[in-house]
């Protein structure tokens, strides 16, 4: 009996998907949750930092999801049918760095899984005049072409061609106990490779429920990029917006009142070589929006905040939120080649990081 595939998805260009996943590639194991709305990739570090990439189904050229069949009674406690917004979902774990390396197997995914060059060199089509091709890829080219010619008709409907070198991919997942299968092709008429990634049962990850009523700031990129990477601790300080010059009558009095007033938002970086303070007023030229009902002051380990830099540098908009328990939420809206909006009103795909404050702070 042939099992129905739980997931079947394809993209003609993996660069956008690869950029999203690289934003949360700070730990080897990632939990993949599949629903009808798309994919949710969760990565956890030290039971303190949680990175989540939300990839909606319309980011794929094809996205088909079928709920898993009911598991045997022996496995019922591990794989019970649950709902997320009244929808069934499937979850499994994969080594995220291997997944990224496979998407970049032809060298056209816009970067490797790590900061170092990828292990795989770019494949080249027969006829490309290149010394590197002659020395590295000449022997295996014929075998790859022979295998891909048999799949040309099938892969052509999933992977786009064109003069620009792109890597297309088709994902399939049959269910628990089966690998995640990738068919990767440079284009419809080029080289094709099939890879299988072992999947593991999804383990419970850190649950960080967020109360978003405390603070909101659609900003961050320039502030963190100016900090010394040798910092040990990063402190976010927020104060409610007030009118410091309410009792001032002259320009000099109003200026003095502004200088003595607490900053609306301050970042303090503490390191071996000293401290750095950066103040930001509640100005639309600096903060697109700012809300703070009560003074807040919480510190975080800088090494955890630094994990967000890759997603931050790629994002087009950033939201920073802190609840009254010190839980930090950073949301990064990722760019997209085409404007998207799902039924819930969320535009495009985004990455979210949640980090617990240091216990030494009240």
Q: Supply the number of helical segments.
A: 9
Strand order of the largest sheet: 10-6-2-3-4-19-18-17
Shape: elongated
Q: How many beta-strand segments?
A: 19
- Content-based structural category: alpha+beta
Instruction: Extract low-pLDDT stretches.
Output: 71-86, 112-163, 212-216, 342-346
| Largest pleated sheet | 8 strands, antiparallel
Relative helix content: 10-25%
Instruction: Report the mean per-residue pLDDT as an integer.
Output: 75
SSE order: EHEEEEEHHHHEEEEEHEHEEEEHHEEE
Relative strand content: 25-35%
| Whole-angstrom Rg | 24 Å
Distance from N terminus to C terminus (CA atoms, Å) equals 59 Å
Summarize the structure in words.
With 362 residues, this protein is an alpha+beta fold. It is built from 9 helices and 19 strands. An 8-stranded antiparallel sheet has the order 10-6-2-3-4-19-18-17. It is elongated and about 80 Å long. Residues 71-86, 112-163, 212-216 and 342-346 have low confidence and may be disordered.
Compact description:
By secondary structure, this protein is of the alpha+beta class.
